[in-house]
Design a protein that fits this description.
This protein is α/β, with parallel strands linked by helices. It has helices spanning about 25-40, 55-65, 80-85, 100-105, 110-130, 145-160, 175-185, 205-215, 235-245, 255-265, 290-295, 325-330, 340-355, 360-375; strands at about 5-10, 45, 70-75, 90-100, 130-140, 160-165, 190-195, 215-220, 285, 315. The strands form 2 sheets. Strands 1-2-3-4-5-6-7-8 form an 8-stranded parallel beta barrel, surrounded by 6 helices. A two-stranded parallel sheet has the order 9-10. Strand 2 (about 45), helix 2 (about 55-65) and strand 3 form a beta-alpha-beta unit. The longest helix is centred in the C-terminal third of the chain and has 18 residues, at about 340-355.
């Protein structure tokens, strides 16, 4: 059954940092953790302790901050990873194990029985170490569903609190995601966490489908960082859940642009201008039909209010502008332009946009005004 509330477990500091070529400094990791927690993100996956002493030091530094967010660390189901995780002052560990036959045989050289026994063994060991446990099912999207159900039942019986369903290669669509999560929901009372990758551009859609199927926790990353094509972006999950499913994740959306910019700087991965939610140009309008509609009533071309992100609509002039946009732009400059002159100015604007590949600035607009005014004999300042 779908849930009315979900918890975001943001993994920017773990899977996000696994983006090829991305490496955060300790100070950046702390700053990102603080920003996410201050925004109301419920859980943070903050690192991989088995990477070494420096990684454990950063995790301990974040834990010492006593942030208003539950912290999780990641490890494999082996003694060394569990020992490293237990040394970080974090109460929740995700212990990962492959569950698809191709990875069980091809990566581990093991069988299904070994996986089930390993889950039983390491959930018990983690509990003995004083940690709560999430069982991470690597490559769950390619696993046999009946076997995946056995893994869930084994994890629950052993005392785990959560099952992470990882679409490790991003090969699911929303329909199959919904069916798989719903099937798991029918056989277990564990928390179910969706970990969606974006290889086919479906990570956000699959995350929403998982919620509809009964997932309680969602892995996200800021700006969609992560292995290969990345993970479900935090900003997309927050806004889509709010507007499509009336689910409030508890995240302050007005903080999302600043967090996006922070992570972009720290990762060295600029945000595309047309990136949904946080891209610089996503509330910028040029097309004449859209501008005219917005000016008459915002709801004509506004899916949600940019004020939810602390932003505003921006109207610019370019090849696809119309006369209403021109008249409005000149009014903001204190210049009265009539319909005929607006049409003449549009010709100048379109030629400029094609040649320069950008919108004209104020000085260029004034130049177009005087050029067309001298031809028409009209020039009026307001």
């Amino acid at each position: 059954m779908p849930t009315n509330s979900v918890t975001i477990n943001d993994t920017t500091l773990r899977d996000g940092e696994q983006t090829a070529g991305v490496a955060f400094t300790p100070a950046e990791k702390v700053q990102i953790a603080q920003a996410l927690a201050a925004a109301g993100v419920g859980e943070l996956e903050v690192g991989i302790p088995a990477m070494g002493g420096e990684e454990r030091e950063v995790v301990r530094a974040i834990a010492a901050l006593k942030l208003p967010a539950r912290l999780m660390v990641w490890g494999r189901m082996c003694d060394g990873d569990l020992l490293a995780a237990s040394q970080c002052g974090v109460g929740l560990v995700n212990l990962s194990v492959p569950v698809s036959d191709i990875q069980i045989a091809g990566k581990l050289r093991r069988d299904r029985a070994w996986v089930l026994e390993t889950v039983r063994t390491f959930v018990a060991k983690a509990l003995d170490a004083g940690m709560e446990v999430g069982v991470g099912c690597e490559d769950a999207s390619r696993a046999d569903l009946e076997f995946l159900m056995k893994v869930a039942e084994t994890a629950e019986y052993a005392g785990a609190r959560r099952l992470r369903f990882a679409d490790t290669l991003g090969v699911l669509d929303p329909f199959s995601t919904f069916e798989r999560i719903r099937a798991l929901r029918d056989v277990t009372d564990l928390e179910i966490e969706i970990h969606a990758h974006d290889d086919l551009g479906l990570a956000t859609a699959n995350t929403l489908a998982a919620v509809k199927g009964g997932a309680t926790h969602l892995n996200t990353t800021v700006n969609g960082l992560g292995e290969r094509a990345g993970n479900a972006p935090l900003e997309e999950a927050v806004m889509a859940l709010r507007h499509l499913h009336d689910i409030d994740t508890g995240v302050d959306s007005r903080r999302l642009p600043a967090i996006s910019a922070l992570v972009a700087r720290a990762s060295g991965r600029p945000v595309p201008v047309n990136k949904s939610i946080v891209g610089e140009a996503v509330f910028t309008h040029e097309a004449g039909i859209h501008v005219d509609g917005l000016l008459k009533q915002r709801a004509n071309y506004q899916g949600f209010d940019p004020d939810e992100l602390g932003r505003v609509h921006r109207l610019v002039l370019g090849k696809h502008s119309g006369s209403h946009g021109v008249i409005r732009a000149y009014a903001e400059l204190g210049i009265l332009v009539g319909e005929l002159q607006a049409q003449a100015i549009l010709t100048c604007i379109r030629r400029f946009a094609v040649a320069r590949k950008r919108s004209p600035g104020n000085e260029e607009l004034r130049q177009f005004y005087w050029e067309t005014a001298s031809r028409s004999g009209a020039a009026v300042d307001m």
